[in-house]
Amino acid sequence: MNLLVTGGAGFIGSNFVRHILGTYRDYKVINLDLLTYAGNIHNLDDLKDNPNHLFVKGNITDRALVQSLIKDHDIQAIINFAAESHVDRSITNPGIFVETNVQGTLNLLDAARECGVDRYLQVSTDEVYGSLGETGCFTEETPLAPNSPYSASKAGADLLVRAYHETYGLNVNITRCSNNYGPFHFPEKLIPLMITNGVDGKDLPLYGDGKNIRDWLHVTDHCTAIDLVLHKGKSGEVYNVGGHNERTNNEIAEIIADYLNLPKERIKYVQDRLGHDLRYAIDPTKLETELGWRPNYTFDTGIVETIEWYLNHEDWWRPLKERAKLGI
Ligand code: NAD
Ligand code: TDX
Q1: Which residue numbers delimit the NAD(P)-binding domain (predicted)?
Q2: Which residue(s) pair with 57 in the sheet?
């Protein structure tokens, strides 16, 4: 198959491109990424001589570019990772989230329809379901109730994907995954921020009381789920992705502080995020029973491997911390 992967220089997209090229020796990946502050060509260094990988710097909102890539490379499937992805940035600057996440998705859907692409897969998030109380899990039937400009823009994109299936019969799938962690995670997000701050002798900032809960999944397990949905997903269906691994932010900070031998006083409580969702938890039963997906990582193994990865890749994350600090 020839795939158009968008956002393939970001955290999850780069892991996915590596997974696909390592798994299917006859697949070609056209990797379209704008290289925003979060995109990083060095995430793909090990793939630069791979003849089945073509990197193209460009915007998913660029109609002519997307259409020409589809036609020139005989694209059979589009997998859309490209997005503005950081909730805090969406609170201070929502406009770009609508432009990239909504307008960009619309452009990809139009191109898929006009050029006759066989499959379209939208990589979405559990955040579109809003926030849970202390019990229960998000299923695919949970109503959308996004609370941040980021999640609202992702929900808007999901609804367009749904509409293109219902209206034009486009062969689509949506995956909604919980929080990812693992290598190449941009160091503005909780886990890599805490590891890299820990190494640098800085505080580990926790929003509010640190009791908010996220459901963590190793990025490579997310990639195998997307692979399965791409190949076996039923047209028009949504699949939730998650590994039953809920942790409070306090627990995450403590695991990292313990591993790095940091005193607990380095964990500092700071001003809460506006509209901070209390708890996310995914019910992945549909993906497990209909497509046979199982995660490989336990969190205990994955988090140690991830901390070690950051300890061994200072040359990768140090320039990114600078970028994030400068707000570019
Ligand atoms: P990321 O911020 O690390 O990467 C996003 C990539 O998209 C970057 O490489 C960036 O350069 C690129 N991009 C941004 N705007 C673009 C544009 N207009 N045109 C082309 N490329 C553009 O994000 P991530 O964490 O890898 O997330 C990837 C996708 O997965 C997103 O759609 C996100 O909503 C979704 N998701 C993320 C998580 C998570 O925990 N990180 C969980 C569930 C779903
Ligand atoms: O400094 C921090 N301190 C803190 O307490 C940061 C950056 C975060 N937090 C809290 C906020 C959240 O409760 O940690 C939790 C995780 O925060 P993020 O890493 O920013 O992730 P989150 O907001 O949960 O969103 C992530 O998961 C779902 C991704 O960024 C999204 O793209 C994805 O859709």
Answers
A1: 4-305
A2: 33
ipTM: 0.99
> Which residues are CB-neighbours of 258 under 8 A, at least 6 positions away?
none
Please indicate, yes or no, if residue 125 is contained in any of the structural domains. yes
Beta bridge partners of 205: 268
Distance 179 CA to ligand 2 centre (A): 8
Residue 289 is assigned to a structural domain of this protein: yes
Q: Are strands 53-57 and 2-6 parallel, antiparallel or unpaired?
A: unpaired
**HEC assignment per residue over 150-212:** HHHHHHHHHHHHHHHHHHHCCCEEEEEECEEECCCCCCCCHHHHHHHHHHCCCCEEEECCCCC
Please state the rounded mean pLDDT for residues 106-128: 98
Nearest residue by C-alpha to atom 2 in ligand 2? 190
Name the domain count of the chain. Answer: 1
For residue 323, pLDDT beyond 90: no
The answer to the question of residue 201 being in a domain is no
**According to the model, what pLDDT value does residue 322 have?**
83
Rounded to the nearest 10°, the torsion over CA 295, 298, 303, 306 is: -40
Among protein residues, the one with the nearest Cα to ligand 2's atom 32 is 85
- 3 state DSSP class of 49: coil
pLDDT digits (tens, 9 = 90+) for 46-55: 999 999 999 9
The mean pLDDT value for 194-217 works out to 98
Residue from 5, 43, 85 to probe ligand 1 pocket by mutation (most atoms less than 8 Å from CB)? 85
- Polymer length of the chain: 328
- Which is catalytic among the residues 33, 84, 126, 215? 126
Residues 6+ apart with CB under 8 A from 24: 1
Q: What is the pTM of this model?
A: 0.98
* Enclosing domain of residue 58: 2-182+217-244+277-297
How do residues 159-170 score in pLDDT, each as one tens digit?
999 999 999 999
CATH code of residue 72: 3.40.50.720
- Distance, C-alpha 272 to centroid of its chain: 23
Q: Does residue 214 have a pLDDT over 70?
A: yes
126 is catalytic: yes
